[in-house]
From TrEMBL:
Belongs to the zinc-containing alcohol dehydrogenase family. GO terms for cellular component: cytosol. SMART domains: PKS_ER. GO terms for molecular function: S-(hydroxymethyl)glutathione dehydrogenase [NAD(P)+] activity; zinc ion binding. The keyword Zinc applies. GO terms for biological process: formaldehyde catabolic process. The keyword Protein biosynthesis does not apply. This is Aryl-alcohol dehydrogenase. SUPFAM superfamilies: GroES-like, NAD(P)-binding Rossmann-fold domains. Residues 12-363 form the Enoyl reductase (ER) domain. Its cofactor is Zn(2+). Pfam families: ADH_N, ADH_zinc_N. PROSITE patterns: ADH_ZINC.
Length: 365
């Protein structure tokens, strides 16, 4: 079969729309005609990080569409179903069986390497392999192949352009609050970085009735979105040197109960830990710098916790429907953050999100 896909030819290269061949779905696979796909920071970060030998490649991991074909071994998904495509997990290792599917033993192979587990690719061009299977889907393509563990059936009345970002970005931010922090109403949460992930975290904190929510960002336009979701906005650039941590402590009554870092900026993470109350927790969800500097004495004496979080500690098969129910009920109003682009405007969407003129780009077919 033929499909139109956005291919990246090498590290740091732009997306280029080309025609590819895509395999028929195997017995355990699902073919989805993509109607909308979110553009996520992870797509842009990893296309810069991977070595040249892992290209050409198709990215995209927030796909939403309609099932076109289903392999005979697949249960629970049928032709015509409306679906969201999320990350893959083996569903067989000890972590998966305990519900920790984001920490699956096979995460790297299933989501990042560009191949099926047997080493084959789903995409081809002129007889040569093109890496795909990004998050088990590579949905920057009119057609994408997924599996029962990452294809989530949703209510067909939900706008697929709205549903797509719940596959990763919105699920990560909201899940970090709802699953990982699990806050009490009388607590305080500070979210560092008010992009799509951070704003989803803020909205989830609001849905839980958290008393004090603070948003930190250097772009005032994003802080306006955060304030619309019930947060107090803080722009560090507006504060004198050395006063940022004191300002956070002031707003949170002596220190934050919890924080969520989406920036992956070492200095921001260091300050976020400093701004925690004793026994406070910072959840790190951003992909970026591999090293940070922390005060071990502060951590020990104040019982602070710094922990990572993948995909909001969520199981997408249950979490995505729950979040979409919250959206429908009006308690998680994230649809207002979405700006749609035609699929052939993908590079324009990349430029706009980098410039901060949009929060969450979604490409529509």
């Amino acid at each position: 079969m033929k499909t139109r896909a956005a291919v990246v030819e090498g590290p740091g290269q732009p997306f280029r729309l080309v025609d590819l061949d895509i395999d028929d779905p195997r017995a355990d696979e699902i073919l989805v005609r993509i109607k909308a796909v979110g553009l996520c920071h992870t797509d842009l970060t990893i296309k810069e990080m991977l070595p040249a030998e892992m290209f050409p490649r198709v990215f995209g991991h927030e796909g939403a569409g309609v099932v076109e074909a289903v392999g005979p071994d697949v249960e629970g998904v049928g032709v015509g179903d409306h679906v969201v495509m999320s990350f893959r997990s083996c569903r067989e290792c000890a972590r998966c069986e305990s519900g920790e599917v984001g920490y699956c033993d096979q995460t790297m192979a299933l989501n990042y390497m560009g191949y099926r587990m047997d080493g084959s690719t789903t995409f081809h061009r002129d007889g040569a392999d093109v890496a795909g299977s990004f998050f088990g889907q590579s949905s920057f393509s009119e057609l994408a192949i997924g599996s029962a563990d990452n294809v989530v059936v949703i209510d067909p009345t939900v706008d697929l352009a709205v549903a797509a970002p719940f596959a990763c970005g919105f699920q990560t931010g909201a899940g970090a609050v709802l699953n990982t922090i699990d806050p009490r109403p009388a607590s305080s949460i500070v979210v560092y970085g008010a992009g799509a992930v951070g704003l989803a975290a803020i909205a989830a904190a609001g849905a839980r009735g958290v008393e004090t929510i603070v948003a930190v960002d250097t772009q005032n336009s994003r802080l306006e979105h955060a304030e619309g979701l019930g947060a107090v906005g803080v722009n560090p650039a507006d504060l004198p040197d050395g006063e940022f941590v004191d300002r956070i402590r002031e707003l949170t009554g002596g220190g934050a109960t919890a924080g969520v870092d989406t920036t992956a900026v070492p200095k921001v993470i260091t300050q976020a830990v400093q701004a925690l109350a004793p026994r406070g927790t910072l959840v790190v969800v951003g992909l970026g710098a591999p090293e940070i500097e922390l005060d071990a004495i502060d951590l020990m004496q104040n019982g602070k916790i710094v922990r990572g979080c993948i995909e909001g500690d969520s199981d997408p098969l249950t979490m995505i429907p729950e979040l979409l129910d919250m959206l429908a009920a009006g308690t998680l109003p994230l649809d207002t953050l979405i700006t749609t682009y035609r699929f052939d405007q993908i590079n324009e969407a990349v430029e706009d999100v980098a410039a901060g003129t949009v929060v969450k780009p979604v490409l529509v077919f």
